[in-house]
Amino acid sequence: MSKSEVLELPVLDTGSAVPCCPPITAGALSQADAEKMAAMFKALSDPVRLRLFSKVASYLGGEACVCDVSDVGVSQPTVSHHLKRLREAGLLTSERRGTWVYYQVEPAVVAAMSAMLDLRT
Question: How far is 114 from 58, CA to CA, in rounded Å?
């Protein structure tokens, strides 16, 4: 394969994926639900990741360029690492435009985390 060849990778449809987990008051979580939710909360347990997540969530227009959120007191490679962890946990989505990557909060995932912790049910 030459270096100029372009490979097309399959795109996952994340728009229809809604994380499932019952509210914490509905009963004991299953092992699978507990692992799924723990990964999301673990991703947010780091102060730098929480700041990055907050910056993306509060950015005007609902999406932020990596260049606009990288001032969190760590180097650019560390910012990229933390953003990757947030993406892997399903909390952020990203889209590359030219040389920049734009991030958006995944509202369905955040809603599921919130619903799980809702004690009013």
Answer: 17
Distance CA 103, CA 54 (A): 12
The Cα–Cα gap between 109 and 90 comes to 7
90 three-class SS: coil
Q: How many H-runs (helices) and E-runs (strands) does the chain carry?
A: 5, 3
64 touches 55 (CB < 8 A): yes
Alpha carbons 77 and 22: distance in angstroms, whole number: 36
Cβ partners under 8 Å of residue 48, min gap 6 = 72, 73, 74, 78, 79, 82
pTM above 0.70, yes or no: yes
d(CA 23, CA 6): 45
Per-residue pLDDT tens digits for 11-70? 434 444 444 567 777 778 889 888 888 888 999 999 999 999 999 999 988 899 998 998
